[in-house]
C-alpha cells in the first residue's frame, strides 16, 4: 500500500489522506445513486433533481410532513375562485433572494410560472401546466393570479406545492445574467446556495446566510450538504458503515444488513407501487392500440391479475412492508377498492372463456430504476405465477430509457413490462399521466378514461371529486387496466448522526430540515 | 519510419470514419433521447416539437452529414442532456481521472507482474512457479465487481484504513487501482513467464552463462529485455482497455472517469456524447497501438519500420 501511495504521489496527486470518514461536524453527506442531470433551473430538468434544488429554491405552498395538509410558503395565503378556474396568491413580504437580488415578488412568481410552461421547459409537469394555465397576472406587487382553462379544485396540491416543480426564481437575476449563468450559479430564497459542483461526482451546498435563521426552517442543523454520486448500492451502504455518508437510498434486499449494522431506516410510506403495464391498450392514439394481443380482452387481463399471489410477493420481496395493491399507483382514495385475490383456478377459467385454454406466449420486459431495484425480481415472481396457469413468459431485461422511447412512440404494443407507479399529492395528476387519451405516456386509455378524467377535473365539490376518483379507481381495477402488485415504501438508511428527517412521502425533499446529533442547535 | 507513421495515421482516419458510421447507426437503432426530454403528460405534438428541435426529424443521411462536417471543423457537438455542455469538454473533464487510474494500475501491474513472471520462469516447476501461476489464475478468474466490494469491505468497512469510494486524494486510488490491476498483473505474469522460459533456452543466454556472467545479470539484464517485447504489445491494449473499459470499477468506486461518462450517455441516448466518446476511445486505442509499435523498435533494434 505504501508503494501505491508513493506511486500516486509521483503522478502529481495530492498528498495521501487515509482518514476515511473524517469530516466536519456540520457537514451532511448524502450518497445518491445518481445526481440526475445536474441542472439548476426548475424548468431545465425533471423532478428527480428536487433533493438538491429544493434546498436552493422555495415554493408558494408546502405540504406538512405529518398531516399532509397545505401550509403557507412564499404565499402567506391563497384563494380559489368559486368556479375553480382562478387562484390568487398573496406573496409573503420581505423574503430575500440570495446574494442581494431583491425580495420575492409577484413578478418573480409570474416569471417562474411562465418559464415552467414555456416552450423550452422540460420539467415534469410542463406539458400539463401548458394546457391548464390560461394566463398569469400580477394585479399588485405582492399578488399573483393564475387563471386556468378548465376548473381544477386541487390545482395547488397537484402543481403548486413542494411535491412538484414550480419553485420560485428571481426574475431580475435570470434576466440580468442569462439562463446559462443562472444555471451555473442558481439564486433562490431557500436556506442553501450552490457552493461547488463537480460534474458526475458531487454537488455541495452551503448555508445561504449563516448569521440569521432562515424565515421558514430556522437555523439548519448543518452548514454544508454534500450530495455524492455513488451508483453502486453496496458502496453506498459501506459509506454509511464507515461514516463517509450520513444518508442514502437503499433497496429492500439491504434492509436486514442495514438493521444489523444499527443504522436507521426511513420509509417513504406508500410512495410507489410495482405494477405490470400492458402494451397496446391506448385506443385513442394512432399506433398505440393493438387489438391482436391476448390482453386486449378484459378477461385475460383479469386472469393475469388473479394468477398472482401478491401477498407472497409482498412478504418475500418487500419484507411485508406495504400492502397488496388494487391500483396502478398509490392513492388514499383507493384504499377500499377490492384487490384481486390469488385464485389460479379462476385465472385458468377466465383464460378458457377468453379463448386461451392452452395459455399464450408473452414477453415481459423489466428494468431497474430508483425506486424500483426490485422490479426484475418481481418480474421473475410474476412469470412463475403466470406459467403456473399456462402462460409462457419470456423475460427480457432492458433499460428504462429504451422502453420509455418505445412506449412513447407506439412501439411497445405487443409486450408487457414491469414499472413503478408513483404517489401524487393529487391523484388526478397521476391519472392524467397514465390514462389520459392524449398522453403518450398513457398505458391504458380509451373514451371512457377520457370521460372519467373530464368529470373529475371539472368537479368543484371536494367530497364528490374524491368519490369520482374512487370510482375511476374501481373502474380501472375492474377493467384490469394493469396488473397491480403491491403498494410499497421507498426505504432510505441513515447513520447515527441523523436524528430527525421530516420528509413528505411524495418526493425526496426537506433534506435541509434534517437534524444532526452533532449539528447546530435549532 | 516517417512513411510508417503516415500510413498508420491514414489507417487511423479510415478506422475513425468507419467507427463514426457504426456508432451513428447503432446509437439510433437502440432508441432516441426524445422520450427522456418529454414530461409525463406529453402529447404526440410535444414529441414532434422536441424531435424537430434536436434535428432528429431529418433523414439519417442528412444527420450523419451534419455530424461529420462538424467533426471535421473540430466540433463534436453538445450534450443534449443536463446543461448541454460541449461533448469535448465532458470528455476532457473525465479523461484525467481515467488516465490517472489506468496509469497507476498499469504501473502496479508492471512492477508486480514482471518480477512474478521472472521468478516463475526461473523456478519452473517448483513451488514458486506454481504459486505465481496460481496468483495469475486467480487474478484472471476473479470477477472484478466482487473483488472491488471485498477489498472495500476489508480495508474500508472492517479496518477503516481507506475511503470506500470517491476521487480526490491518493488514498482514493488504492482500492480501485488494486482492483483494476489484478487482472493485468495476472496477464503480465503469464506473458513474462512464457517469454522468459523460451528466452532462457536461447543460444545467446547459454553464451552469456559460458562467458561467466552472474545469473542475475543474465536474467535481469539479458533475458528480461527481450522477454518484455510481448508484454509491451499487450501493455498498449491493456492501458487503452483500462481507460475505456473501466465502467464496473468506476461504478463500484464512484470514480468520475470516461467509462461512466460513456455508460451514462448510452443510457440517456445522448447521441453527441456517445459519438464523441466512441471516436475518442477509437483514437485512443489506435494511438496506444501506434506507440507500442514504435516502442518495439526501441526495445528490439532488429525491428525497423519502412525498410524492405
Describe it for me?
The complex is a heterodimer of chains A (522) and B (308). Chain A has helices at residues 2-10, 50-56, 106-116, 126-132, 155-160, 171-177, 179-184, 233-242, 255-260, 298-306, 310-316, 344-353, 375-388, 400-407, 427-435, 447-458, 462-479; strands spanning 27-32, 61-63, 70-72, 75-80, 86-91, 133-140, 143-148, 192-198, 202-207, 224-229, 247-249, 264-278, 322-324, 361-366, 392-397, 416-422, 483-484, 486-494, 498-500, 515-516. With 522 residues, chain A is α+β, with helices and mostly antiparallel strands. In chain A, strands 11, 12, 13, 14, 15, 16, 17 and 18 form an eight-stranded mixed sheet that branches. In chain A, helix 10 packs antiparallel against helix 12 (344-353), helix 15 packs antiparallel against helix 16 (447-458) and helix 16 packs antiparallel against helix 17. Chain B is mainly alpha-helical and 308 residues long. Chain B contains 13 helices and no strands. In chain B, helix 5 runs antiparallel to helix 10 and helix 5 runs parallel beside helix 13 (271-299). The radius of gyration of chain B is 24 Å and the shape is flat. Chains A and B meet through helix 1, helix 4, helix 7, helix 8 and helix 14 of A and helix 2, helix 3, helix 5, helix 7 and helix 8 of B.
Order of SSEs of chain B: HHHHHHHHHHHHH
Task: Give the C-alpha Rg of chain B.
Answer: 24 Å
* Low-pLDDT segments of chain A: 1-21
Q: Tell me how many strands of chain A there are.
A: 20
CATH superfamily of the largest domain in chain B: MetI-like
Tag the structure with descriptive keywords:
heterodimer, A: 522 residues, alpha+beta, globular, disordered N terminus, B: MetI-like fold, flat
